[in-house]
Amino acid sequence: MTKMNSTTTIEQLNQPGQPEWEIVIGLEIHAQIASNAKLFSGSAVGGSNAPNSRVSFLDAGMPGILPVVNSKCIDAAIKTGLGLHGTINKLSIFDRKNYFYPDLPSGYQISQFFHPIVSGGYVECADDDSAPAPDHDSDPDNNTVKRFGITRIHLEQDAGKCIHDVDPQKSYVDLNRSGVALMEIVTEPDMRSVPQAVSVAKKIHTLVRYLGVCDGNMELGNFRIDANISVHKPGTPFGTRVEIKNLNSFRFMQAALSYEIERQIMVVESGGSVVQETRLFDSNIGVTSTMREKEDASDYRYFPDPDLRPIILSQDRIQAIKDSMPELPDDRKARLIDKCFLNEYDADIISCDRQIGEFYDAVMLFDGFKDRKAAYKAVANWIIGDLFAAIKDEGISFSEVKLLPLTLAKLVALIQDGTISVTAGKKVFAKLLDGGVADPAEIVESVGLRQISDESEIRAVVLQVINDYHNAAAAYRAGKISTFGFFVGHVMKRFSGRANPDVVNKVLRAELEASPQN
User: Fold this and answer.
1) DSSP assignment, residue 299?
2) Virtual torsion, Cα 186, 191, 193, 197, nearest 10 deg
3) How far apart are the C-alpha atoms of 27 and 402, rounded to whole Å?
4) Which structural domains are found in the chain, ordered by start?
5) For the segment 216-231, what is each residue's pLDDT rounded down to a tens digit?
6) Which residues contact 383 (CB under 8 A, 6 or more apart)?
7) What is the per-residue pLDDT across 322-372, written as a single tens digit (0 to 9) for each?
8) What is the pTM of this model?
9) Which helix (H) or strand (E) holds 253?
C-alpha cells in the first residue's frame, strides 16, 4: 500500500495493481467571533488574564441566571453566511446540547441544531489535484475551480478549558473561555483529497478574517478544525466516519488527515472494521489516537432552550449587513484580473488579505501615472516583492507598515516618467519605509538620484567609451553583438548608474552601428 503524506491524492493512492479507494472528508470549523463580550453574558473576552477572572454567574453555570443574546454575534453570523453564499434564516432557535464535561459547569451547551441561523452555501477553491470534483456546480470557464458545499452555520457558546499539566495528580478548570461566542461552519462531505480539504479550510479562514468576524488565530484556538474522514471502494456506500478533533494548524491538519486515511485503509484491508469515534492528533509523533466513542445527535438530547426566545430577523437588517460588507476576496481577485490586468498569481496574493487589497486599491487611486496599465503591474510588484521582503526582514505585520499608499504611488510615477531608474527607486523605497518622508521626490533631490536622460550628455560619454575601446567596437561591427553589454556597463559606470538605460541603449546602438570615422 502506498505510504501517504500531506499532499497525497486519490490518483496517487490508486496505483495499478492496488485496491481502489475513495476518500470522503467533511469539515466542522469553529470560528470564535470577534466580540468584546460573550454570547450570552456581559463577561469580557480576550486578553491574557488570570484563570477564572472573566467569568459571570451564567458562565459558571449558576442557577437562576438568564442568558441575553449578544446582537453583535448575530450580525457576525449573518455576515459570514452572506460571505459563504448561504441562506440567512429569518427564524432560528437556540437549543440545549446536553453532555457532561468538567469544563461545562451547566451540563449543557447552548447551541443551534434544529433551526440554525444559516443554511446552505458554498466555497470555491482553485484545485489542481486529480481528485474527482463533487456533485456541485463548478466554474465552466476554469476546470481548476471546484465548488464545495456548506451545510449550515450555527451559533454556540464555547466550553471552558481543562488544564492537566500543572499538577501531576490534579486537573484544573479555567472558565475564562466558557460562554465565548462561536460560529460552527459545517461543510458537506465534498472533499476527496487532503489538498482539497486544506484548501477549503484555508478559504474559510481567509473569509472570516476578511470580514472581521474572527481574528483567525489558530495558535490560540480561535479558529480550529474538526475533520470527518471515511474511506470506501468506489461504487460502494460511504465508510464509517471518524472525527479528528481540534486541529489548530493547516500543517497539522494535513498530517492528521493523511495518517488517518492510511490507518483506516489498513484496518479495512486487514479484515477489520473502522469504529465511529472521535480521535485526537498528536503532532509530536504524527498519529491519531482514540479520545471517545463518537456520539450521534440523539445522544445529546437536543431541545429548544426555554430561557431564550427565537431569533427573528427582518429583511432590512439582513440587507443592511449585506450593504456594509467589504468586497469579498473572490470578487476582488476577479476584478484585479479583469480590470487591473494582473495575472492570477499576483491577484491571488493581493486579494487574500483585506489590508493588502485595500492598500493596493488606495495606491491605484493616484491619477499621476504616465502609463496606468503598466502601473497596475508595477504596484503589484512593489507590494509583493519589496514591501513583503521588508515586512519579513523587520518581523512586523502588514498593519504596522508606515509606508503610505500615496507615497508608493508617487515613487512608481517617478520611475515611469524617467526621473529615476528602478535601481534608484529601490534606494528611495528603503528610505521611505520609516514613514518619515511623505514625498519621494524630496529624497531623490537630497541624495542626488535623479536620472540623466539628456541625449547629448549621454552621447558624449558613449563616444568616449567607444573611442577608449575601439577594438571592441570593431568586433561589434564585425558581428560580435555580445560586446554590446560590455559597452552598456562601461557607460553606466561613468554615470555612476544614473543614466537612463533606455537612452543609453538607443544612443549606444546608433553610434556603434554608424560608420566609424577615419
Assistant:
1) G
2) -30
3) 39
4) 10-312 (no CATH), 326-447 (no CATH), 455-513 (1.10.10.410)
5) 999 999 999 999 999 9
6) 350, 356, 359, 360, 363, 408
7) 999 999 999 999 999 999 999 999 999 999 999 999 999 999 999 999 999
8) 0.86
9) helix 250-269
